[in-house]
Amino acid sequence: MRFEGERNNRIGSAFNRSNGTNRLFSAAECDTVIHWLEERAGWDRTAPQSGTPELGNGLCQCNVIKLDPSLRNRAIDWLPRKLSDIVAALNRKIWHFDIDELSELYLLRYDEGDQVTLHIDLNDARCRRKIAVLTQLSPADAYQGGTLEYGFAPATLAAREQGSVLAFPAWVPHRVTPITSGRRYALSCFALGPSFR
After folding, report:
1. Beta bridge pairs of residue 167
2. Judging by DSSP bridges, how do beta strands 184-192 and 101-102 pair with one another?
3. How many Cβ atoms sit within 10 Å of the Cβ of residue 1?
4. Which of 53, 60, 110, 145 could cross-link to 125 by cystine, CB 3.0-4.6 Å?
5. What is the DSSP secondary-structure string of the chain?
6. Are 123 and 171 in contact (CB under 8 A)?
7. Are 186 and 162 within 8 A, CB to CB?
8. pLDDT tier, 9 (very low <50, low <70, confident <90, very high otherwise)
């Protein structure tokens, strides 16, 4: 069992900078994104479904806004640039994958009962995905349930601190457990490049 936990720590790079010091995203930045999301119409509700190109055999149930990183959104123009810098730095430090670009951003809202079942992000329809990057936008006490779990059994629990970031290769299994109360906001994107060979 200890070996599995160590392997999870090697394949995933968890950034949990709490107590307001050197977080990858500050509470103010996270709150700005949440505020921008709540002012927008256009949430796409993903009905419970499985076998989608996005999730392979996973089941996704949440609200999503897809944001092209090249589009200009005055309130959050800084967000794609900051994520791109984070991904580039992580890749240089850890994986050295051949990366071309950042995918569109998926801004996610999980309400009571919402979840994403166990899946991987690399599949036939999404073969350019190299690194998955997941950012916690909500404060830890804003919801119950909704735990992000990743890696091989026993799974590792991702940080819940607002502004924390988790990055791992796209073949790593992960899920979000059902929200039992409150609301969780998160952000996901992918570093893209030529298919693994």
Report:
1. 13, 133
2. antiparallel
3. 7
4. 53
5. -HHHHHHHHHH-EEE---TTSS-SS-HHHHHHHHHHHHH---PEEEEEE-S-TTTTT--EEEEEEEE-TTS--GGGTHHHHHHHHHHHHHIIIII-----EE--EEEEEE-TT-EEEEE-S--GGGTTEEEEEEEE-S-GGGEEE--EEESSSSPEEPP-STT-EEEEETTS-EEEPPEEEE-EEEEEEEEE-SPP-
6. no
7. no
8. low
Residues 19-42: pLDDT tens digits? 333 468 999 999 999 998 888 766
Residue 95's DSSP bridge partners are none
Task: Name the residue among 36, 106, 28 with its Cα closest to residue 73.
Answer: 36
User: Dihedral sign, CA of 46, 48, 53, 55?
Assistant: positive
Q: Tokens for 107, please give them.
A: 């801004």
Q: What angle is formed at CA 157 by the lines to CA 86 and CA 44, rounded to 5 degrees?
A: 65
Q: Residues 148, 110: contact at Cβ < 8 Å?
A: no
Which domains does the chain carry? 2-192 (2.60.120.620)
